[in-house]
Write a structure and sequence with these properties.
The chain is of the alpha+beta class. Among the domains are: 70 residues, no CATH class; 36 residues. Helices cover 22% and strands 30% of the residues. The protein has two helices and 13 strands; from the N terminus they run E-E-E-E-H-E-E-E-E-H-E-E-E-E-E. The strands form five sheets. It has a four-stranded antiparallel beta sheet, with helices on one face. A three-stranded antiparallel beta sheet has the order 11-12-13, with no helix packed on it. The chain has a two-stranded antiparallel ribbon with strand order 5-6. Strand 12 and strand 13 form a beta hairpin. The radius of gyration is 27 Å and the shape is flat. The protein starts with a strand and ends with a strand.
């Protein structure tokens, strides 16, 4: 991802190139000086996206820090509401607040209706989470994945692609190792 060079205060951004750290692109008034800007979907090149992510993260972090500083100093100010996140595609007026990280969580892939899906379990107690995981795994038993034949020219012994060689006795696949030539057998 692109790196933001400096924190913008006037709506202007200077974002470093991903491939060349000495090159920077300038974003002003919602436009970017990079070559990808004109052809990017809805003109959101990665430099504009980096700036947008930075701007949103900075705002959220500052609000959280201000809230924490207000509580730790025993200030008599009422706690401020945490900023609302508006997910893409969420109807207006139905804001969803950001959820805190769960003390215990687990991700597992299961096959559901013929599709491989990722299920995330979250909880406050690891033992209860493991019991829930065990029930989930009983409900969706592991399916044996079919053995796949190695691709032609692939050495399964060393895990490398071999080269097709030709000679007066025909063609064969091989690659060189520190011990000599291997034909993948």
């Amino acid at each position: 991802m692109s790196r933001l060079k400096r924190i913008p205060e006037d709506g202007k951004a200077k974002v470093a190139s991903q491939s060349n750290g000495t090159t920077a692109y300038h974003g002003v008034n919602g436009e970017c000086s990079c070559k990808d800007y004109p052809k990017a979907p809805q003109r959101f090149c990665k430099h504009r996206l980096a700036y947008g992510i930075h701007k949103r993260a900075y705002t959220l972090a500052k609000a959280k820090l201000d809230h924490l500083n207000g509580t730790s100093n025993n200030a008599s100010q009422p706690p401020t509401e945490s900023p609302q996140v508006q997910p893409h595609g969420q109807p207006q007026g139905e804001a969803v607040s950001a959820l805190p990280e769960a003390p215990a969580s687990c991700n597992v892939y299961v096959t559901l209706a013929g599709r491989k899906v990722q299920v995330t379990l979250r909880g406050s107690d690891e033992q209860r989470l493991l019991a829930r995981l065990e029930k989930l795994l009983q409900r969706f038993p592991a399916e044996d994945e079919p053995e796949q034949e190695p691709a032609e020219g692939w050495c399964s012994k060393h895990g490398v692609q071999m080269k097709l060689r030709n000679g007066e006795h025909g063609s064969w696949w091989s690659h060189k190792t520190t011990q000599g030539w291997c034909k993948g057998k």
